[in-house]
Amino acid sequence: MKLKNMNVPNKLTLIRFASIPIIIAIMLINVEWFDWLALVIFLLSSFTDFVDGRIARKRGIVTNFGKLMDPLADKMMIVSILIVLVSQNRVNPIAVIIIVMRELAVTGLRAIAASSSGGGKVIPASIWGKMKTVSQMLTVALLLIDKRIYSIIDFPIIGILVIIMTALTLISGIEYFVQSKDCFNDC
Question: Is residue 76 domain-resident?
């Protein structure tokens, strides 16, 4: 498939992939206002996640590429940023390990479901998965500018959001496995 022939939602997904190394590079440059630049690019990239799905459903142009790559772009963006934040001592590494393990496990589950006998199965995002994604995007956005928030608010809001994000990540991961237990019938 050529890029010029690709539909708009899939192009937006590719833009999200392309934004990942840009955000990471900006985070690794030690210039104070670059946190804000990383935040702006992250928010714009996160917005494409909302827009691409909406356009695809509205126009009836949902593709296999989009079903696979859209959630993968989200996972790669969130996990990459969280790993950099761990390296900068800005987020608890245990929370990030839990999130990375869940994301890898669910991606593996989706691959098993897609390759299962009977033509494969697409595991759609549940309400828990959507809440997980929103909580991750909100928490990561605030973590990108965490120093400024703590100077304004004398309350551990980011720590609480990290706990909520991690809990929703676990809950949604468990739900995916419970709802997809039939994928393991041939084990």
Answer: yes
